[in-house]
Amino acid sequence: MPRGGPLVPFATYTRSPGGLASSSPAGEHRIIGPTMIDVAASAEAILNRCRDAGSADRAVSERAYLKSDLEHLGTSVWEIRRVVKDFLSAHLDLTHDELVSLTRVLWAEPVHECRMSAVMLVELDAPRLGPDDLALLETILPLKQGADFETFAGYADAMLEEKEFFIRKAIGWVLRDTGKRRPLEVYAWVLPRASRASGVTLREAVKYLDPVQRQEVLEAAGKRPS
After folding, report:
1. pLDDT, tens only, 41-61
2. What crossing angle do the helices spanning 211-220 and 183-190 adopt, rounded to 10°?
3. For 209, how many CA atoms within 13 A lie in the half-sphere containing its CB?
4. DSSP labels, 167-186
5. Which of 21, 83, 102, 190 is disulfide-compatible with 49, CB 3.0–4.6 A?
């Protein structure tokens, strides 16, 4: 994806029938099904908007704080959310395949703001997704593939209050799987967020915690231990 360039208003994208061919290696930027927007141009415009809203000083401090290997543009979470909301407002008829393709293209970029945009696309437009899209969530909640917990935690925190059942379930699955090996990290992360998490997420998250930890989490959530 090119860096920089003129800002393209979201509402000016032309739609044309047919799928978009990916120029990247097979499977890396997978675009599925027929798409009516220019997925690559849409991703580039989101990137440019985030870049324009970024701060060099913030980028340096945020990258150091997160111990991140990604490029950081120094864009606040609030600004990234605003960019994504603007895009969705300009594309009210976005299809399921377009949403999934755009999410995958953004996630493939080694740029923090692109990956946060992918998470927020899924969060803000979740009604277009369904149980068959669990693989997409496993891509953008990548702890099972060995990512550090802080990376997962940032993305999961942004989606913790999502109403869609399968998103709640997917977050819980990742926490459950991590709890087998790193229960203290899961406990420390879930406890202060227990009141925000759904019962579906918590039931999975506490499965491998010890009984005392499990009870503390469920009590913090206002739920009766089972």
Report:
1. 999 999 999 999 999 999 998
2. 20
3. 25
4. HHHHHHHHHHHHHTT-HHHH
5. 83
Task: Give the lowest-confidence range in 28-42, 117-131, 180-194.
Answer: 28-42
Q: Which residue has the tokens 């800002």?
A: 7
Q: Domain coordinates of the chain in residue numbers?
A: 1-128
Please give the Cα distance from 67 to 35 (Å, whole number): 36
| pLDDT at res. 120 | 84
Contact between residue 126 and residue 163 where contact means Cβ atoms under 8 Å apart? yes
Q: Which parts of the chain fold into alpha helices (H)?
A: 39-52, 56-66, 77-90, 96-108, 112-124, 134-140, 149-159, 165-179, 183-190, 199-205, 211-220
Mean predicted confidence (pLDDT) in 189-198: 92
Confirm if 44 and 10 have CB atoms less than 8 A apart. no
What mean pLDDT comes out for the span 20-31? 36
